[in-house]
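Here is one chain, start to finish.
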Amino acid sequence: MCSRRLNCSFHASPPSLRYDPHSRPLSNLKPTFILAPCQRINNGCTTRFEVGFQTSLRRSRGDPTTKIAAVAMLHQNPVVSDLIATGLSGTIALSILRFFAETTKRHVFDQKLNRKLVHISIGLVFMLCWPIFSSGRRGALFAAFTPGVNIIQILLIGSGMWKDEATVKSMSRFGDRRELLKGPLYYALTITGACAIYWRTSPVAIAAICNLCAGDGMADIVGRRFGRQKIPYNKNKSIAGSVAMALSGFVASVGFMYYFASFGYVQKSWEMLLGFLVVSLASAFVESLPISTELDDNLTVTLTSILLGNLVF
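Its structure:
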C-alpha cells in the first residue's frame, strides 16, 4: 500500500511552481509550502512539498502592493524556461488562428461572427499563458515575442507580400487584405505593448486587453443581434452593443484580476475593481462615438484604456 512521507526540498521537479530569485528584491520573507507532483520512490509513493518563499513588496505609484508567491517554471534554467514558454504560447496562439481559419473555409460560422470570435479568444487565451513566463523584464520581452511575430505576419499579408486568403477572411470584414493593416495590426500592437511595457503586474495591461478583446468583441456580436435601438449620436452603434461591451470588458477584467492575484502578481481590491469599471464604461462610450468608426475602434478603445488606466490605477 502506498505510504505518504513529507519531503522538504529546495530542488523543484519541473514543471512545478518555484520562486524566481532574480525577479525582485526580497523583503518580509515567510516560508510557504507548494505542492509538487507526486513521485514514486522505490515502488512507493511520496507526496513532496517544495519549500518556497512569499514576500510582500511595495511598488511605485500605479503599481499596487502585491504578494509574489511563485512563478510557474518549465525548466530549472530561467532562460530555457522562457524559451519553452514562448514556444508553447506561440503554438497555442497559432492553433487558435488555424482553427478559425478552418471554420472560415468550412463556413461553420458567419464570416463576421468568425472574425469576432478570433478577436475575443486570441488575446484572452494568450494572457492566460503569462504565468508560465518568468518575472521581470526578460519574461515580459519573451512574452511579447509571439504577438510581435504576429505583427510581422500581418504586415506581410496586408501588404500582399505573403498570400494567405484563409487568414484574410478570418480577420477582415470584407475579405480585403489591406484591412489587416488597420484593426488587426492595432490589435497585435496592443497585445505586444501590454506585454513589453506593462506586463502582468499592471492592471492597465489587464484593462487594455480585456476591453479590446472581450468588450469590443461582444459589442459587435450583441449589437448585430439585439441592437435595434440605436444610440442617438451614432446610428451605426446600438445601446445593446455598448452595454454588452462595458459589461464584458468589466467582467473579463475582474476575472483576470482574480486569476493573476492567485499567482501573486496583483493584489485584488475594491479600488482596483472600481478602476476596471471606470475604464470599461469609458471605453464603451468612446467606442460608441463616430470617431471610433472613422479611425478604428481597436485603436480608440486601446488608447482610452491605457490613458485612463494610468490615471485610475
